[in-house]
Amino acid sequence: MTAEQTGQRIQEALDRLAGSGAEEAGEQLVRELMAFYGEGLARLVPAVPPPSLARLLDDPAVAGLLILHDLHPEDVTARIGRALASLPEPVELLGFDPASGTLRLRRTASGCGCGEREVEAALACHAPEVTAVRLERAPQLLQIGTRPPQTAEVR
Q1: Per-residue pLDDT tens for 80-90?
Q2: Range of the domain at 50
Q3: pTM of the predicted model, to two decimals?
Q4: 17-63 tens-digit pLDDT
Q5: In terms of domain of life, where is this protein from (predicted)?
Q6: Are residues 116 and 136 in the same domain?
Q7: pLDDT value of residue 112
């Protein structure tokens, strides 16, 4: 389960408590559990050898937890790169605007390209700072070559 899916399930549970007077208690419970898990993770992360931690950062659940608790060792640019590297087809990074959360990408000319949903899913756990994706198509190349050989007309 991804961090995004877990967050959605928690929000749905809190929504069911709305209006019953238990909403505040539910939110307090979530805050206390988050603090508890955050403290534990803060102690674990420095103890993990760097090569092992690097491999763990590719796992969406681990990456999501570390980001949620502000413990991820990589900056947003590195995390965007990690997310894009996980896509089935490469895309070119054109830029990221932290103020708007917009990431600009270009499909490479070699493949049919990933859709925005695939890109957004890859970014959701690795770089939640990205709130919008603008996926541009690579310019089409015009190939000029010689004319195919003429075949003699058969009669």
Answers
A1: 999 999 888 88
A2: 1-73
A3: 0.73
A4: 877 778 888 888 888 999 999 999 999 999 999 999 999 999 988 99
A5: Bacteria
A6: yes
A7: 55
- Report how far residue 147's alpha carbon sits from residue 138's, in angstroms, rounded to the nearest whole number: 26
Q: Provide the CATH number for the domain around residue 118.
A: 3.30.300.130
Could you tell me which residue, 121 or 101, shows the higher pLDDT? 101
Q: Indicate if 67 and 87 belong to the same structural domain.
A: no
Count of structural domains within the chain? 2
